Records
---
Amino acid sequence: MTAESHQEPADEKTKRRSFLTGALAILCGGLATVPPFGAALWSFFDPLRRSSGAATFLPLTDLTNVPADGQPRQFPVIADRVDAWTGFKAEPIGAVYVKRDEGSDRVEALSATCPHAGCFVELDKAAGCFRCPCHNSSFTLDGGIVAPSPSPRSMDSLECEVSKSGAVSVKWQNFYSGTEEKVARK
Amino acid sequence: MTETQSPDTSSEAHVPASTRGLGNWLDSRTGYRALIQSALYERVPGGARWRYVWGSTLVFAFMTQVVTGLVLWASYSASAQTAWESVYFIQYEMTGGWLLRGIHHVMAQAMIVLLALHVMQVVIDGAYRAPREVNFWLGLVLMTLVLGMALTGYLLPWDQKGYWATRVATNLAGLVPLIGPSIQQLVVGGPDYGHHTLTRFFALHAGFLPATLVLFLVLHLSLFRKHGLHAKQPITQPDAMFWPDQVLKDAVAMLAVMAVVLGVILLPALRAILAGEPIVSGHLGAELGAPADPSEPYAAARPEWYFLFLFQFLKVFEGWGATGEFLGAIVVPGATLGVMFLMPILGQWKLGHRFNVLFTIAILAGAGLLTAMAVHEDYYALWADRSAFADVEKVLDSTGGDSEKIAAALGHDKKKIADFENRRHKLESIRRSEAFLSAVKQAGRDADRAVELAGRPEKIPPTGALSLVRSDPLTQGPRLFAQHCASCHAHVDPSVKGVEREFAKGSAANLFEFGGESWVRGLLDPKQVASAAYFGNTAHSEGDMVSFVSEDFADKEVWKQADKEAVVFALVEEAGLLKGTENTKLVKRGRELIADTDRCGSCHPYGENETELGYAPDLNGWGSTEWVVGIITDPTHQRFYPDTNDRMPRFGVASEGGLPALTSEQIELISRWLRGSWYRPAASEKPGAAAGHP
């Protein structure tokens, strides 16, 4: 017993010492990994800092190219685009369907991006409707849902402007897909 | 020492039962406790020591490279039009990109140093001896792989520095007999440098080499574990376990390595703070040179410092031709590796071990010496006093370097001639070093400018940053001017002291701030018009313009001061270089005076006047880009000097079947540069800055 009780403090001391050494080792080793991991995470999350900027009206076409016949026509949206380090001049950045109803001056535009999962909605002239080739969402020529549809909402309409000289422009925006509500991406 | 074998079982008492249960569950499925046990409780004979930390720091350095490298990979794009651009984006636009790249870049260098220390420790301690021979060889393979990653990583930014260094390295690989050219072509990805050089180097750097390295590292570590740590003799302390004593030492060493790396990255920031200058985070960490341009000479080309000794070593074989390069770049380094490979066998004998130690020290010392020599040669001009060689320069100038004339100038005194030759060599070294230093400076300016251009709001065109640099008047103008114009025209600020000597050398006008207010004032100044800065050294020195300026224009009866001012501002406005609006009223008056056929208009066609083209230059749009392009293209054109052109070549006109001396793009670049019309970032555009010239 005496021998044991004699040894115990020494044991405790060794234990405490090795605990402290171990803790210090973990601390030092941990600190050493902070800069590389920190820098890696800091840079990795850089994309979250970026936004596509405020939506602007972009020139689309001339009113004469949109006859008042109620038929949607596809037009590319042309704009200067920045992709990370590259600046593109006047490039097609997306597509819209534009139509003008008979006897109307009002021009309506629908984004060609499917609100379900972001595929490119096609115009099915024969069937007289829009159809998404990915999951078969169907929409009327006004963009309304044809039930049953995997799409949670109608096609996204875009604001249109027609100038006095007849230039049609559209407020180009991207929306979150898959939601019932139409929410613009920032 | 058996007590230390059981800490994990005893410590379990402190762990809550639920956690213990989960731990037990996991352990019964994975056996992780035994794994940790075997990883941490390796016996260290003689206890923990600082000399054993190098291997661990290398593993740490490699892991750092993997972590930072993977995230760099997530933003890097390997192609000739996107590599520089994506690295620019990482360095200057991504949050923390400079730090990420800085750590990767500096840690790569730290790894080379740690490698050298590790090898030294292993050789000096004799740790390579039986039964650890194979592990030593594995270590050599690892070393070669690390060097390979350093070499391939250097190219990836596709800047001038990496591009030219890689050209040299791959050309040297081509010197290997028989298979050399094929090796070169395989590595380069074709007969020329481009997209596939980058994709291949990137695949090597981030794929093949690290994957192979991991494989060899696993083997290296498992053999290390199998044979145990080779203890440095004599052992004075009791044995200890790897955990926690040696782990602490390793961790402290890792932290120190990381601190040094961060210190290297952040030191310039500290210096900026002390100097009260703003910190540009993009300038911290790794450098990014100007985009690679095979058509642009790069006299500042040097390999990274840890390969500088090889670069210098090649100079030992100067004059040997390709054989020398083959010896210096392949045979000798190969033989060195070969000797290292044999070390474990040689080390079986005491003498052999001594040889190994001496050899390692000699190699490292040799590399150190060669590096010092290379640095000394390159930076010699920084401490050498060139003015002490003024007499040598004088003799060289007067004799044109002709050895017989030099001998005559020195009175055929052999001792004097030998002394002269000696000092001439030194002077040449200074000149070479000056050329290198100015090339480094130029490279820095080019890099800064490329970054400035890439940062424009329009960003980089899809054709890449090189096209931006090539179409930049500020970058190309001075080069084209030096090549094609400077043999006659000066381009020096006339307000600088002692500049008249520069003008005297030329045979045509000084074009500094051509078309700007001070240039026009000088032209119309009777004291200056016939000086070397204007028409003095040309055939026009006694022409009508000179006599007009020195007689009529100087006559206060004929030309009132206000009218003279008006002419000055009208001409500057014609050149499109008038700053501010306070003088616009004068411009109208000036234009009338210029068009007046009793005044300027008697010789010069301008505005509504009916003076015929051909006698004196057309002043419509005088000094504008279009006008300058016109006169450079063809000074003998009706608008300029059809009959009185004095020696100026028609730069844009080709002789039959040939090409013009300058393309129309090049002429436009010169014109824009002369007129100071180039992109300036908004922040540095200060109102009232001198006519656009920095």
Note: Strands of chain B lie at 43-44, 240-241.
---
Amino acid sequence: MKANSFRWCSGAVLAVILMLPTLGLGQENASEAAFSAALSTLKGASMAERGQAIEQLAAVRQPRVVVVLQALLEGRLFNLKADDRLVIGETVEEGYRLIDAQSAESLGTAARSAMQKIAVTNNLRASLRKLIGRLQLNNDDADVRLAAVKAIGKAVDADSLALLRDHLVLEQDAGVQKAIKLILGLEQLKRGDKAQRLAAIALLKDQASRDVVNRLNGLVEKDTEGRFREPDGEVRRQAEAALASINARLQLYAAAETLFFGLSLGAVLVLAAIGLAITFGVMGVINMAHGELMMLGAYTTYVTQQLMPDSLGWSLAIAIPAAFVISGLTGIAIERGIIRFLYGRPLETLLATFGVSLFLQQTVRSIFSPLNRSVATPDWMSGAWRINDFLSLTWNRFYILVFCLLVFALLLQILRRTRLGLEVRAVAQNRNMAKAMGIPTGRVDALTFGLGSGIAGVAGVALSQITNVGPNLGQVYIVDSFMVVVFGGVGNLWGTLVAGFSLGIANKLLEPYAGAVLAKILVLVFIILFIQKRPRGLFPQRGRAVEG
Amino acid sequence: MNRLSSKLRSLGIAGTLALLTSTAGAAKAEDTIKVGVLHSLSGTMAISETTLKDTMLMLIDEQNKKGGLLGKKLEAVVVDPASNWPLFAEKARELLTKDKVASIFGCWTSVSRKSVLPVVEELNGLLFYPVQYEGEESSKNVFYTGAAPNQQAIPAIDYLMNDLKAERWVLAGTDYVYPRTTNKILEAYLVAKGVDKKDIMINYTPFGHSDWQSIVAEIKKFGSAGKKTAVVSTINGDANIPFYKELGNQGISSEQIPVVAFSVGEEELSGMDTKPLVGHLAAWNYFMSIDTTKNADFISKWHDFIKNPKRVTNDPMEAHYIGFNMWVKAVEKAGTTDPDAVQKAIIGMEFPNLTGGIAKMLPNHHISKPVLIGEIQDDGQLLTVWQTNTLVEGDAWSDFLPESKPIIADWTAPISCGNYNTETKQCSGQNF
């Protein structure tokens, strides 16, 4: 084990030898002992003990320390119950592959039940991040150093400031330099003399950072007794000027953010409504089970993920066609089995399809249980694209927006360019004439309904990434879907697209002022008034066929 | 002829006798004590309530294995109110008048309890209600085995304030009675603790809200003003997943802005992708992860009963466990299932809970409970990070609202009232 560890920490030992030639292997033994002692404290039950152990660990000069702390932060540090030693586990198919925490010796695999996780709380996580940051300040990778600086910046103390100041001299990477300067500047704004404060304001005013805004706001505010927090008038004026220029930019970011929120809500609405735009818009069938067809799509995603748990991304790609087929076939079955007999009787269709929706819900409840199912999100869809501190676009919404436009374009092409599309449009415009021209209207009805239902299933795959997968999924969206289709103009796909996006944006514009509940009501009232004025929606179908 | 007729007559008598004894036997076999289970098995609330129905079946089954109650077998009468509030009242009436159940265990949402309340009061039934709720109620016929606000919400605020040093507060909830009342109490509490109104943001969203982008962005903005911010969430059931997902995606970690939830437990977590939730908090009176022999025993019995070792246990299940056992002991003590006798016998009744303490039924029909704060782990379990030293007694009428401050509930003589004003010394008669 000693030889082993020698290899591992040769770098550290080399550094130690270079700095302190008098100390040699004795130092290494001492650090090894401290490492081992800290690790055994880590096994202790109380969180306070664990916190002490983490501090002790960080003080040990040993390259394995960062690995252990990182594993602890990520929840991969376990205590092996059988021989009571700390191991780092990595998930593999048959359980966990284990590595000894101290010696990095490989220990084979073990099941989850054979070990106990060393759990951490938020307080410990924060201190872990800071300590890891300090240890990684000398990492070769600039990105790691940047993350380290940011982690230190979250909670600055005198030690870390000194560390950062020393590091700034050595640092080569411009990005890391900038991040350090930001932290130091903020600190100077707080404690420096007048010249330093002015210099800090000049440096910080171009940085788009939340901390800068807060600190500057602090300078121009008055305290509870009505005196300015900042005694110097010159500094205050500069701070105000800097804030004004930052605020102008902030408004722009806020507008961009609202637009994005509106578009992404709109994309969800369009996805949910577009299948309905075909069944309700083109065929005139009021399908109350539309939401449940989306739910089937979402459950299909769940099942494909269960079948292939190792490749989340692929399972999603497979879920899309699978959901289309399953929901589409269900749709065809509903059309052939029930709706076919009820054409021209909208009230009966409504009631029958409402019954079907209840039936589908309870079926899912019986098969999958009434509990929600957990659908995982692949990593590339989590998180956000951070443009700066004030503007970040979340990936899942972004991809759904793109996906919605793709589905829309595809559907439009199907209706415009394929034989089926031609027949669908012909039947929608004039059923009898189409029949006279030899179009099998029954078959076209079934296929159109299947197409609309299939699209609903595809929408369900997208929804599974942003909301619950449970038996009630469909009910949440059914009202919104009808609203979008009616608002956009029955029988017009473009109308659905425009209506979905405009309702989404209107909702998001209202929400900050009126609150989520009132915003929804306002939008609904607006639509009712709009329909009074223009009963055929935004883009009504024209021509003789419509009148008849 | 005569002989024949007398023979026939004796045969007839024998037959009648035989018939009589056989019906008597049948009557004896039917003589069970019926227990009503009033939980939604379909509709929106089935997600939470189905588990409680199964819990009741397990508890009744277990009691029967121990020999039943008063020498009789217990029989569960399960009805499905289908998440439909008026139907809750109808089904409760059916249970009490048609099935003549000795007590009812049921309801989840406050609105369903409010709809059952007049029925159990009119027919003098017993209802055991197992879910945390907003308080401001105490009925003679209802036993509240879930937490009152002072057993969940207030201690959670204390934890955030004292241990996490939170200074700015977001009170986010679904738009209905429980979050509205709880937030009213919490706001009054925070103001009393010296928090500036500017530092409190209150936000309500509709049921099943799924588009959290702008609200989370607002929380982020509110929370980045330089003071430590915490979110107190009374967001109900289904809306939680998109909420936490959005928090994770917008990069708000539990270290920056912790969220403490009152409606997210093990059961809800089992249907979620827990990645974005790790480190956020939940306040309850029971966690599945509590390490006691009683709890381990309960979990293994639950797994055996439900035949699925992956199912979790949660706080309302423990509430039913305590409530049911207290009822059993009260019936044994009273020697009858008569509601009035049981009401008298159950007050002061003690029964060990699953977390190592002794729950006690208080005169206000609430029970004493420990308060636990846990951090969500990636396996969907909650790790206790804080807990009260002693059990906290449930307070029916909050002391932090000016209108309910002087009011107490005490169902023992001489007060015997659910809404007694200690200042005017009067009982209003209105229990809710």
Note: Chain B has two domains: 33-147+292-370, 153-261.
